[in-house]
Amino acid sequence: MRWILLALLLACTGWAAPLRPTQAEPEDPIAEEEEEGKRAFRRAPDPKEHPGPDADLYVKGVELQRKKRYSLARKTFWKLVDKYPESPYAPEAEDRSGENAFLGISPMGPIGPHERRIDVALMGDGYRLKEQKKNDSHCEGQLDVMLREELYEVYRPYFNFYQFHLASEDKGVDEPIPPEPDEELEKRKKKRRKKKKGPKQYNTALDCKAAGPQGQVWANPRRVWHYLQYLDNHDSLAIVFAQMGKLGMGGMGIATTGPRGVVVHEFGHAFIGLLDEYSNNPGEPTGIFTAANASTTPENPPWQHFLDAKYPGVGVYEGGATFYKGVWRPAPGCAMNSGGSAPYCPVCREAGVLMIYERVSPIDQIWPPEREVTWAVGAETRPTFRVLPMQPAGHKLQVKWFLGAAPEVTETAKDEEPEYDPEADGEGLDPFERRLRRKRAGKGGGAAKKPALPTPIGFRPGMRRRATGTAHLPLPRGKRIRGKMKREKKLGPVHTAIVPDLPVGRHILTVVVWDPAKPKGHKRPWVLKDERALLEDRYEWRIEVTEATVGGN
Question: For residues 196 and 190, what is the distance between their CA atoms, to the nearest angstrom?
């Protein structure tokens, strides 16, 4: 399905900001492109920093949208644009009041810190302004279906879900445009049939189109990424549900579905990078390819470690990645082999857990945040070292504390000692990532002669990714010490190190947090092979204990 997605992406036009009904779209393609350049995404400034009557109208319109008084909010934004066309609030006011309008964002359930969560947007397409209650209901239904999959139910605390309220002018999904017909063939057929109407096209917020052999629905990525920018922090992940859609498609961080049913399958494509496990193509693939759940090499598939462990429900079954022959999958049944009626198989579930830990550390919070801590012998107060691990449903993360003497380092050696970088020598990277690094860096590790590989569309600079965890590192210095756990009302299970009295000198305290990935009720862990040690993370404090000053102060 990758070639279909690529063709659709190339065919998609750039996003055009919605216009008020009193304005007309330019008919000249060149003028339209120039107009497109003028409509680049621009957020409104902070009204406190740019006060004025236009700011007052903007704040009023946003507040009306928050109260779901959408028609009155639209009129307020129109008033702003009419009266203050050059206002810095005008571009966003247009976006919030056009034929296809952005109506705001609502959190769906608890929201954690952006830097330590996976942010996912849910967006409805083809819901007119008067259908926003139905939009809300279908959005809740999408999340409900997704959380029925045990992987997302267990790791729900690792995600932030947001509903993006979008209004569309039309209610529908664009029908595919057929290729240009052969003129001679059409002339011969013309006499034998009635003239058919052209494919129906609709004006919707996310420009959803029917594509693929079974009428799968696909959203315009540029429009999805446009609206994502209204979320200050995001991971370029979106679940799009088209009101008039049926089957879906997934890729490039976007899972597109109908109003219900296939979100688990499509999010498996978009987030985890899984391939289809069903078969509808009688041919065989050309060349060799390998994915977490599909392979053209049955003698040594990527899930060989499951076979070696004789994991129940895992084998090698021919048929996958849509092909009947030449591709093998790991299980007879899986969400990737259906519209989502079945759960993920063990292999896909393992891939999902590892993908979650590519973005989220097992450590949620640390106190104190400073790595260098100093106190004097006999001090009445000294820092308390605490850690809050992540909290999956159904099982607990393991927390261990280690205390030891810090190595003596001269200033010269300290300057020469490089900080540990797991990517510097390729440690923790899979073969594909190593090849990619070599291509970007050039031979010999020097500057590349060819231009660097382009960043994928939608990949936000600075997006949180964990190249590796810490389980591959040697055990922390020193000996293991005891800790205690106390469940705090607003935080959860906070673990505290019981640090004994320390002599004068430098010491290292390390906390190690590890997810066994074995929810309650399961006899075997969900992850058998963690090549990048993603399930573990650690934090290290350097403690300096000094002589007590005169008077004990």
Answer: 10
